[in-house]
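Much of what follows relies on a compact textual record of a protein's fold. With that in mind, consider the following protein and its fold in token form.
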Amino acid sequence: MDIKIERLSLKKNYNKSILLNSICEYVPISRTSLRGVTNIRMATITDIVKELSRDGFVRESQANGRYKEIAFTPEPLIMIEE
């Protein structure tokens, strides 16, 4: 396996581990809050949360009604799948 591909795979697994641990610690938590807690890019968070959801580890709740920027934008919360 190419070294560059191995590094990307290790980094993705590392980020996935950090996100899953953070979700467990702060459940329920929004993606925006995960960004603040982990300092991982939003695009990476979105991709990994989708993957964790698809694999049955987490689920997203209905919107929690937080204010985001200027307009009222409901933001779903991420929870551990039971």
